[in-house]
Every structure is written in C-alpha cells, then in structure tokens.
Amino acid sequence: MNVSATIQMLGTASGLPCLEGFQTSCLLDMDGDAYLFDAGEPCAATLYRREMDFNTIRAVFISHMHADHFSGVPMLVQTMQLLGRTSPLKLFVPPEAVLAVTNLLAAQYLMNELLPYELEVLPIEAGKRFFADKSIEVKALANPHLAVFKEKIGQKYPNRMESFSFLITLGSRKTKILYSGDIRNIDNLDPFLAEGIVDVLVLECAHIKPEETLQYLDRNAEVREVILTHFGPSWAGRKTELANMEYSSGKVRVAADGLCVALS
Fold first, then answer.
1. Has this prediction a pTM greater than 0.85?
2. How buried is residue 118: exposed, middle or buried, by Cβ count under 10 Å (0-12/13-18/19+)?
C-alpha cells in the first residue's frame, strides 16, 4: 500500500517579520500522521485556516529556542486546548529549555491539569534516534548555530547554546529528509550527509551562502532535492536568483509559504 507523504512549508521567513512570509515552521504529513518541525508564529492560525485536524499532530520538534522557531508554541498548545484535542502530544525542545518551556506554558495556564490532552515536554537527545513511531524516526545532530553567544553571556544564565538539525526517516519506505534548522556552515551537516543518500534537504538561507552551499553539495554529498527556506530581508524580491542556481546532483525548490511537496 502506498502511503502519501508531504512536506508543507507553513512559514519561510527568518528572524524579522516580512511581507513575503511568516516565521519558520514546516509540517510533515505521513498519510494523516503529522509532525511539526519548528513552530514560529503564526503556525496555529495557519493550520486552522487550512482546516487542519489538530488531533493528527503527533509531535513537535523545536530546533533551538530563538523566537522565530518557537514563538508559535503557546498558541499551538492553546488552540489544541480550545478545540478539545484528546490525543497526547510530545513537544521536543533543547534540553536547556525543558523546565523553562514547562514554566512558560504554566504561566499562561497551559499546564496539563487544564488541558484535555496530555502534553509531554521532552529533551532532544543528540547523536541518536530520540523519537520513533509507526510513521517516522528522528535523529538529532547538535550544531554550533548559537555558539557565537557563549562569550557574551558567559555563566550568567543557564543557557547552553543548544541547537539541532534533524534527520527524519519515513517509515518502511526509508525516505530520508534532512532538516537543517539554523546552522553556521553547510559542513555542520556532514555527519548526516555522510550516512548516504538524502532524498530531501530542507535548508535554511539566513546564515549561509546558498551558491557556495550548492557547490559543496555537488562535491560532497548525494542530495536528490533541496528546498531552500528561512529567508532574511535581503532576499526580498530576489528569490528568482536562487531558482536559477546550478545544482547538478538534484532539484532545487525555492520555498514560499504554502509550498507543498509530495514525497516519492
């Protein structure tokens, strides 16, 4: 039996609000089982307007705690509360943020005692498969996206500068999706790229040079399709430049909010 699978780009902008897109959020749908990778605002409103069945969202994965990746979480949790969701939900966040996120949701009266469903706030575990169900498996790779802040904040706060990329394997079909999250350089993904063929790479463009990145992939990895996303203001009106970039190893898509890609 063929299982339908799609990647839907709910938000494709980076840290600044812009006219061309909402903040970062990506929905993976596996024949009715849905998984959210990052939850920038206004992901709950976007899903509601698409008449999403919120009960089908099995898990949410937050790559790091910058607001453009996390800010939609409280409204997502509240929307599910008000719609009467009953299915349990797993919310994976960087280990440094588990207690903070739990307290933030409690401060907004979104604790389990007031929810009609069980919400588990769980730590991402790097270097291993930390989530698996009948539809997908997810491995995490720590990346140095936030390392630049270490010298500035020192030991004053409990932050550990945790940021992750995700390798997602789709059930029995073994299709592999690499979700970069925010990175510093493309070689941050080398441990995953070295594992073999990546069918789809969802790649951020706010902190890397796309042209150099595609050249690197041509030389060093087998990636069948690249979806470029997470655009900063400098890309406003210039995305056609990305669409014309040469990439011999596979296909390049330039994401916009609402892009839906069927997975083979």
1. yes
2. exposed
